[in-house]
Specification:
This protein is of the alpha/beta class. The protein has five domains: about 190 residues, P-loop containing nucleotide triphosphate hydrolases (Rossmann fold), CATH 3.40.50; about 140 residues, P-loop containing nucleotide triphosphate hydrolases (Rossmann fold); about 100 residues, Arc Repressor Mutant, subunit A; about 70 residues; about 60 residues, Orthogonal Bundle (Arc Repressor Mutant, subunit A), CATH 1.10.10.10. About 45% of the residues lie in helices and about 15% in strands. The protein has a seven-stranded parallel beta sheet, with helices on both faces. It has a six-stranded parallel beta sheet with strand order 8-13-12-9-11-10, sandwiched between helices. The protein has a three-stranded antiparallel beta sheet with strand order 14-19-15. A hairpin with a 5-residue loop joins strand 20 and strand 21. Helix 5 packs parallel to helix 7. The radius of gyration is 28 Å and the shape is globular.
């Protein structure tokens, strides 16, 4: 077969390509470097899979997400295409064998993470492979301007050294013009061709609704239809609370966050994909690579940290081309929360210098020494010793990783976690017969209320402090409870590993990277401001605002977003009169809140609120202590 259409038909069963796919494939077949920008659900994977199948040799795919790699490998294997993924947790000997198979076993695709690429064994074997294409998925991660930065992505360009003759394609769904330029520079692309499909989604209505009671409006939105939805929240605790709220309201829901065991994540995802559960309540850990076409609504309960992440998450709605909504529910309390969450934990130059000095002191590294040294330690104990804010310290270490002062191991993710496997009543019975566990168990339950629902991250020192015992004794008691089958307990004495890449020189080490630190700080602040500007701008079409942010200039209003809808349903004098008389008629009988009026009157709620405001100004209405409205003469 020598035509892309024939490969498409044989393996995927499609007769036609989606917009821009054919052009990207053609450029790659002509051995050009390409940056491909396709919106979420635009079929990015086909763009590198088809040319790789048409050329002799193997395609190396760099991907940031294990689940995404595994899904793509399974999908290829189901089509009898030889593919493998080098994920974490594979023994050295097995990795060695797998790489041998890539060289001699006629494999067509090798998926690896950016971290795995840093291993010398992997690099040496890639040199021996006949590589026909290099694909970098989620390529925005390589950019200093990108919204989901991964330190190891900075080193992907070494593939250019290993295989200088092989062309590279960077693929992403969200990239501004500065990010596109940075991707080309970081990947060392040559005469790069940038191919971009408009990010416009004709069927997707972007809505921003300012409300006081978010849960009430969430319920109303989900009752508009009975198809799938995703609700994004910021914390693991919020996923559980909101899931319980929806279930009580008769809405089928499940939840998803990064702290769930792998099997539980898979189970909950399958329930949602198979329509056993209608709504997924999730943190931003959910969604990448999930292909579910009939998601009607994506709702953000909290403001996102950037327009890039919002656009990607919102874009998971309406992939089937039918009308869908992406809704942000907001109120005045969101702004300080957003700034607190992302700006208060942003390390400045002084913090980065402080953390670097404390790390050197902690490991007793002398001035001028330490290069290449590897150290394991407990991150919480380190922060406690020097009275450091844990999030600030972690973000500072990440920054030191990005500027190649040290390497922060992914072992940081291996935290101490706990979950109760029996009910609260059974815990009480157990403690009555085993009082030696009472202080520790009660301290754990008082501190971590969600421990009955899922594995939660815990600090042994905090529990020990409340229980009046040592952290060692606390760990010992919890391990015994684990053996008894009372709890699930995962404990790692050392949760962090750092490797120092340069000799200790304190300020002399940090000073050269001060411009980068300041740039990161400014970029983060700018992204927060752009989110706030989007939420607060009720004059310009929401779709146009997003398109302009991503560099598209010649655009038209969408006609379906919250701004366009408010323009088409403008409140005129005649409309105000109708609402006025309807409100007076209601209040003749009893007091009403604005929400109760909206439920009883056939007018948009924002119009009702506007008329209520005018009536209050004119002294025709008053408000009660219960925040309800009443006629002044009553």
């Amino acid at each position: 077969m020598n035509k892309p259409e024939e490969i498409l038909k044989q393996y995927w069963g499609f007769d036609y390509f989606r917009p821009l796919q054919k052009e990207i494939i053609q450029e790659l077949l002509e051995n050009r470097d390409v940056i491909a920008l396709l919106p979420t659900g635009g079929g990015k994977s086909l763009c590198f899979q088809i040319p790789a199948l048409m050329k002799p040799g193997i395609c190396i795919v760099i991907s940031p997400l294990v689940a995404l790699m595994e899904d793509q490998v399974k999908a290829l294997q189901a089509k009898n295409i030889k593919a493998m993924a080098l994920t974490g947790g594979i023994a050295f000997k097995e990795v060695d064998t797998m790489l041998d198979n890539c060289i001699y076993g006629n494999y067509k695709f090798l998926y690896i993470s950016p971290e795995r690429l840093q291993q010398e064994l992997v690099q040496e074997r890639i040199k021996q492979m006949q590589v026909n294409l290099i694909a970098v998925d989620e390529a925005h991660c390589i950019s200093q301007w990108g919204h989901d930065f991964r330190p190891a992505y900075r080193n992907i360009a070494l593939l250019r050294e290993l295989k200088p003759e092989v062309n590279i394609v960077g693929l992403t769904a969200t990239a501004t013009l500065p990010v596109v330029k940075d991707i080309a520079q970081q990947l060392e692309l040559r005469e790069v061709k940038v191919l971009q499909k408009s990010f416009r989604r004709e069927n997707l209505a972007y809505m921003v609704k300012e409300v006081e009671d978010k849960n009430y409006y969430l319920e109303q939105l989900l009752k508009e239809h009975d198809e799938a939805g995703i609700i994004y929240v910021r914390t693991r605790k919020a996923t559980i609370e909101l899931e319980h709220f929806l279930v009580k309201k008769g809405i089928s829901a499940t939840s998803f966050h990064g702290g769930l065991p792998k099997a539980e994540k898979s189970s909950r995802l399958q329930q949602w994909l198979k329509e056993e559960k209608r709504v997924m309540v999730a943190t931003s850990a959910f969604g990448m690579g999930i292909d579910k076409a009939n998601v009607r609504t994506v709702i953000h309960i909290n403001l996102p940290e950037s327009l890039e992440s919002y656009f990607q998450e919102a874009g998971r709605a309406g992939r089937d081309g039918k009308p869908a909504k992406a809704v942000v529910l907001t109120n005045k309390s969101d702004i300080p929360l957003l700034k607190n969450q992302f700006l208060a934990t942003l390390p400045g130059v002084d913090i980065v210098k402080l953390i670097y000095k404390k790390l050197n002191s902690y490991f007793r590294i002398a001035y001028g020494e330490g290069e290449g040294e590897e150290h394991y330690f407990n991150f919480y104990q380190f922060c406690q010793k020097y009275e450091l804010n844990t999030l600030l310290a972690y973000n500072a270490m990440l920054l030191l990783d990005r500027v190649s002062v040290l390497t922060l191991s992914e072992q940081f993710q291996k935290k101490t976690r706990l979950q109760f496997l029996i009910s609260g009543k059974k815990v009480t019975w157990f403690l009555e017969g085993n009082p030696q566990y009472d202080p520790v168990v009660k301290a754990a339950l008082r501190t971590y209320g969600g421990a009955f629902d899922s594995l939660v991250d815990i600090n042994l020192e905090i529990i020990a402090g409340k229980a009046g015992t040592s952290s060692q004794e606390t760990a010992k008691l919890l391990q015994q409870l684990h053996k008894e089958g009372i709890i699930e307990f995962e404990h790692h004495q050392h949760d962090t590993r750092v490797t120092f890449l340069v000799p200790r020189e304190d300020d002399i080490t940090i000073n050269p990277v001060i411009p980068y630190i300041k740039l990161q700080e400014k970029t983060k602040k700018d992204k927060i401001q752009q989110v706030l500007a989007y939420v607060n701008n009720d004059k310009q079409c929401k779709s146009e605002q997003l398109l302009h942010y991503f560099g598209e200039k010649n655009t038209d209003p969408c006609g379906i977003c919250s701004v366009c809808k408010s323009v088409t349903t403008k409140l005129d004098r005649e409309g105000m009169k109708k609402i006025y008389f309807a409100i007076i008629g209601l209040l003749e009988d009893r007091e009403y809140s604005s929400r109760e009026m909206a439920e009883n009157l056939p007018f948009p709620e924002e119009h009702i609120i506007k008329v209520l405001g005018l009536l209050i100004e004119k002294g025709a209405l008053a408000t009660t202590a219960a925040n309800k409205y009443k006629l002044k003469h009553l």
